[in-house]
Amino acid sequence: MKKLSILFFCVGVAAFSAEPQRIVVNTGESPESSMAVTFRFYEHVPAGKIQYLPNAEDVNLENRAETLNVLPDIVYTDMTRTVKHFACSVLLEGLEEDTEYAYRVGDGKDWSPWYTFRTAKKGFREFTMVYLGDPQWGYMTYLPRIYSAAMRTAPDAAFWYIAGDLVDYPYEDWQWDALFRGAREAFTRYPQIMAVGNHAYLWAYRDHRGELPPTWRPHLTQPENGPEGLEETCFYVDYQGVRFIVLNGNERLEDQAKWLKKVLEENPNRWTLAGIHQGFYPSGWERDYPEARRLFLPLMEKYGVSMVLQGHDHAYSRTFPLREGKIAGDPSEGISYVISNAGSKMYPINTRFGDLFEVVESADRQYFQTLSFHEDSLVYKSYTATGKCHDKYVLTK
Predict the structure, then answer these.
(1) Distance (Å, rounded) from C-alpha 250 to C-alpha 261?
(2) pLDDT for 143-164, tens place per residue?
(3) Which CATH architecture has domain 127-396?
């Protein structure tokens, strides 16, 4: 289990604030009984604290809340080891199912506001999730409006999934700060599941290319049930009858394929979805990932994955239901592959897979998606930033 830790960072005006920052809720491996909360301070504090309890109507929550304490753990966020934060990460366990909890974080003197989250129900229950492509650009300008539109459209969403590339450069700490400021309302309320994108890695640094820097895991607390060494970047979550599998498209694909086979074989859930940053059937820049298709897609087709949710191409596309690289004769036996984009960084469509797309768009637009799971159907909808539904797909079982 990931332990609560605290990191120190000084930059700009934020360096003079002792209040906790960058608060985010992540789903635990068992979302009906666990939830993870991550936060940090820009100034040194002796310890971080979280208070939590079932939500109530009164204004005396702090008198009844359970309090957890943790010791600081310094994490450096730049290549020169001069920039550091005190970041806190805690996994709340033993929670009651289908219960709204109130929580706040701080150092015992300075506290965040009280926020809330809801645990999952046991077994299969209908629910809706939100899916977004890459944030990456427009953290404080365009991203807040897409978050607001998603919250208006799906106010009771069980969780959000973001398909990677949270920031453009992982060692530009102002980008992390801007991301969390722009997404504060969503990140503190809706449990997040996040794929790791190529921009989380150190491709721009000659001596550290392909390394995951110490800025990914300290910002998030995600399940550790993936292959050893890929914890929190490759994992799965079972949520009310849906197994949601997150893959890391950046490294050790063969190890992940072996793990994926077992995760799919031993799957008791009604529905199965997968998320990965890089698209299996890319829409942009003549990209192609044949090795990923070879390793992952036969397993997904064999064991009945319904949809794959992706990012990376900064455009919108949805394939027809596919099987063995072709449009499936029976849609229920195929897999739909979606690529979407949430931020303000856009790419043109330029693909070798055009005949496989049912919908493909690139018009300087931001998108968000909802997926609603029912006993016999999965209803997928994609929306623009104004809340207009521009694409809909219904899969029946």
Answers:
(1) 19
(2) 999 999 999 999 999 999 999 9
(3) 4-Layer Sandwich (3.60)
**Domain layout of the chain by residue ranges:** 13-118, 127-396
pLDDT, residue 203, reads 67
Q: What is the fold, at CATH topology level, of the domain defined by 13-118?
A: Immunoglobulin-like (2.60.40)
Q: What is the pLDDT of residue 12?
A: 38
234-270 residue pLDDT tens: 999 999 999 999 999 999 999 999 999 999 999 999 9
Question: What is the average pLDDT score of the chain?
Answer: 91
What is the rounded CA–CA span in Å between residue 210 and residue 198? 9
Rounded Cα distance, 293 and 271, in Å: 21
